[in-house]
Design brief:
Blueprint lengths: L2 H14 L4 E17 L2 E19 L2 E7 L4 H16 L15 E6 L6 H18 L3 E19 L4 E19 L2 E2 L3 E7 L12 H10 L3 E3 L3 E8 L1 H16 L1 H5 L20 E3 L22 E5 L2 E2 L6 H7 L11 E3 L6 H6 L3 E5 L1 E4 L7 E7 L1 E5 L2 E7 L1 E6 H6 L1 E10 L4 E13 L2
Parallel strand pairs: 4-6, 9-19, 10-15
Antiparallel strand pairs: 1-2, 1-5, 2-3, 5-6, 6-7, 6-8, 10-22, 11-12, 11-14, 12-13, 15-18, 16-17, 17-20, 18-19, 20-22, 21-22
Length: 431
């Protein structure tokens, strides 16, 4: 059976067994990958994947099961296991399924891999890096094509299909000079066409150049409060923290979101606009429908500093009495500012350019502490030494009200479009 037939079989089986409501999500994928490590191409392979999610609701009780097989015996067992899980669950009035009945099919990107183009892109990338950044030593490089088909069906008659293909690459590396080396660094990008060399995608050139400068690092002494210049690849991490701490289902259901009553109020400086744009054509990948069976739409989360939307699913909305969101987050876009990165740097008397943040989940109040990785001290308006063993501490909500600059430059890595962000009032600590 193909994915649509599997989904139809599951829905029919749920109905025959007496489900009040039910839904399923059936996916298949093919990954074609060329892998480079230890100075040579070590593997060329294609990997097949399958995923089936089943959810049944009986007497307001939910049972859900996920499997990776589409064999009939496995499908029958999955439905039976979902009913058994529902039988032991507690009734929940908020449980349900998508009720906006629509049938739609979406397609994007290359369906078949261009193996010659994948190979050529990798070889060209390796040669470009050797020529322009001779101190870079690769641990691994992966260049790949992914194609997937996902079908969502439910007992209300919703039928959604997504057939999407995308190319991508990622690299793990360090810089080496004599007996000294930098710490490991990495980057990656997604793209639909081979229109640019890989080295010109995303932040590749910036990160490669910075990594060569990180062979020599200094330990920062003492503690000070200063400015943080957050690079786009690091900003994405902070935005995911922001979503999980203040916008997503769980923190609204349990009432811990600082923003639970903040819709329509100022939560950031007026220059800051953040949107979640799963349908943005500028991105290499899109999410055409949500995991719970609604057509996804782009939306502003924060507009000119004002909180406009959360990222609530159907269940989160029903559980809290708030409106269901147009999407459930990710695919971040921050609107650019008016200053160049160089102008932002020149405005910092003492601070840190941070490229990666390594820390645990921020507290319920938004407080965070973690290690600044692959980062540089900024002093008297200039990027100076690479630093190690540096901690940064602040507050997520407070950061948005202390934004003092947004770069005009942005980076599109295929699933986000982000600028550099300058934030004041961050505690920066050395040994």
């Amino acid at each position: 059976m193909d994915n649509r037939q599997v989904a139809e079989y599951l829905i029919q089986t749920m109905k025959e067994k007496g489900a009040d409501m039910g839904e399923c999500r059936v996916s298949s994928s093919v990954k074609t990958e060329i892998y480079y490590e230890s100075g040579k191409i070590s593997m060329v392979r294609s990997v097949l994947g399958a995923s089936v999610g089943v959810k049944v609701i009986k007497d307001k009780k939910k049972g859900a099961v996920h499997i990776n097989s589409t064999e009939k015996e496995a499908l029958d067992k999955a439905v039976n296991d979902a009913f058994a899980a529902a039988a032991h669950a507690k009734p929940d009035d908020a449980e349900g399924i998508a009720d906006v009945v629509v049938t739609e099919r979406f397609e994007k990107g290359p369906k078949e891999p261009d193996r010659d183009a994948l190979y050529t892109a990798m070889r060209t990338f390796i040669d470009d890096v050797k020529r322009e950044y001779p101190k870079i030593s690769f641990d691994s490089i992966s260049v790949e094509h992914d194609y997937g088909e996902t079908v969502y069906l439910n007992t209300n008659g919703v039928c959604l299909t997504d057939c999407s293909g995308v190319n991508g690459y990622g690299a793990m590396f360090m810089a080496v000079d004599g007996g000294k080396s930098s710490s490991f660094n990495h980057f990656g990008s997604l793209f639909t066409e081979f229109s640019k060399p890989l080295i010109d995608l995303g932040m590749a050139r910036i990160i490669l150049g910075e990594t060569e400068r990180q062979i020599e690092t200094r330990n920062l002494q003492g503690k000070f409060e200063g400015d943080l210049l957050i690079a786009p690849n690091c900003l994405q991490s902070f935005l995911h923290y922001l979503q999980s701490n203040f916008l997503a289902d769980m923190v609204h259901i349990d009432g811990t979101s600082l923003w639970k009553d903040a819709l329509g109020t100022q939560v950031a400086v007026p220059e800051f606009t953040l949107s979640c744009r799963p349908r943005d054509s500028r991105m290499a990948v899109n999410q055409f429908f949500t995991g719970d069976g609604y057509i996804a739409e782009d939306m502003n989360v924060i507009e000119n500093g004002v909180l406009k939307n959360f990222t609530l699913s159907r269940y989160g909305a029903a559980k809290t009495g708030k409106a269901r969101s147009a999407n459930t987050g990710g695919f971040f876009v921050v609107e650019p500012g008016t200053k160049t990165v160089d102008e932002l740097v020149s405005s910092i008397s003492k601070g840190l350019l941070i490229n990666r943040f390594s820390g645990g989940q921020p507290g319920a109040n938004g407080d965070f502490t973690g290690v600044a990785k692959n980062s540089f001290l900024i002093k008297n308006g200039q990027v100076s030494d690479a630093v190690s063993e540096v901690m940064v501490s602040g507050n997520l909500a407070g950061m948005l009200k202390n934004i003092t600059g947004i770069s005009v430059e942005t980076v599109n890595d295929g699933n986000s479009i982000l600028p550099w962000l300058k934030v004041s009032g961050i505690v920066i600590s050395g040994k």
